[in-house]
Please model this.
Amino acid sequence: MEDYYYENTSKKEVILKLFLGIVIVACFILLIIFMMNKDNISIKKNIEFEAGEVLPKNISFYVKSKVKNEKDYTITVDNLTLGEKIPKAGKYNYKVEYKEKALKGTITVKDTTAPIVEVSDLTIGVGEDYNPDEFLSKCEDYSKPCTVVMKDEKDESLNTKAGEYKVELIITDAYNNKTTKTGKLIVKENYSKEEAAKKDTTFVATYPEVDDITEEDAFKMYNHAFVDDPHESREYEDIYEILESDLREYLPSDYENLNIVNQELIYMYNKHGYVVGFAVRVQLSNGKTLYLHKI
Model:
């Protein structure tokens, strides 16, 4: 009995020691893994957005691993600004830096949204040609240009007889997002669309596109509109001559001692695409940008 009891006790001790050894080794391995991964980070390799969405500033949006302190991270995105709307579709690279580590991912921006469109009535004379985009008074989209076509090609011949007609229009952006609108075509006897366009001096658009400009910012406004062609319009001679002169004479007195480091001519158009005025925008040596006004 004693021999049997001794032998049984020895086996238990061996098993217990073996178990404790395994636990110690496992704990040691886990400790090594923990130490190796303590500062490791993982990010989302591919992120998708819709054009026009705001690019998040929050680091945790890009990082899959737990974020303890956002101040330890830096994120940069090529050609985009955190916290602002994404202006157009495309692929953009981004980088997350954490301590001495840097990981890169890709942001894919799609445009699946149809243009926001407004149309106006179009008046022409009998026999005058017209284009479907002349109905367009507004097209907001992140993937311009907006292309306008007539749903029924036969509507092109509506100009042969005086009257009012409905024209179905299809407006498409660069990613083939579409919307439809109905325009009204007014065909009149003894009327000229071109002559009416020359009399319209209200500006509705600029080139380059400027959102914050008003008529008060114009360097020169005309009492008539003219075609956007320097070879056909003498008005261009005057404005080009001014641009070749020293523009500092047009600076407000508060800025007369500063230099002009860059200047830009802005064309102002009426809804028919005719020029009705010009604005001159300059950048000064102190970094300020302003519009010049003719003395």
